[in-house]
């Protein structure tokens, strides 16, 4: 078992662990966002009730409540944007994982002498190459979506 194969296997495991850790961090953040959404919603409901029920409140108080409500809406929109970014990151991680598996499969076929390959192996190699191309195109679409989102936010 040549050294380069050990190195490739180690690097693949390291990349997989990095993706796993990143996925866990994303999952934790998505859960935090969900909790924050619920808190913002409860605060918003309280403010709406105050605005509707307090007919005799001073104008200053109503303005303050309205400003708080607008702040909550802005915060919620910001969290929704972050959640959208995280969901794109999850998709990207899945595609990276898929690409890594396909790369490993393809290497097995590419490293074999061309004259020793059976027609089935050649067809499998072409199929894996097509799948790899499809994954790369999907990742490219995600990057394009992120870039469009970033430009629209500017």
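Sequence proposed for the structure above (154 residues):
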């Amino acid at each position: 078992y040549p050294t380069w194969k050990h190195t490739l296997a180690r690097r693949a495991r390291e990349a997989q662990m990095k993706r796993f850790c990143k996925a866990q961090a994303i999952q934790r953040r998505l859960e935090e966002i969900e909790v924050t959404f619920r808190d913002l919603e409860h605060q918003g409901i309280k403010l709406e009730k105050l605005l509707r029920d307090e007919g005799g409140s001073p104008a200053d108080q109503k303005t303050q409540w309205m400003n708080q409500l607008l702040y909550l809406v802005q915060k919620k929109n910001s969290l929704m944007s972050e959640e959208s970014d995280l969901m794109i990151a999850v998709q990207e991680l899945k595609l990276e994982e898929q690409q890594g598996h396909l790369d490993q499969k393809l290497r097995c076929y590419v490293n074999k002498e061309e004259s020793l390959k059976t027609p089935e192996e050649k067809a499998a190699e072409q199929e894996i190459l097509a799948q790899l191309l499809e994954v790369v195109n999907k990742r490219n679409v995600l990057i394009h979506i992120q870039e469009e989102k970033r430009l629209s936010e500017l």
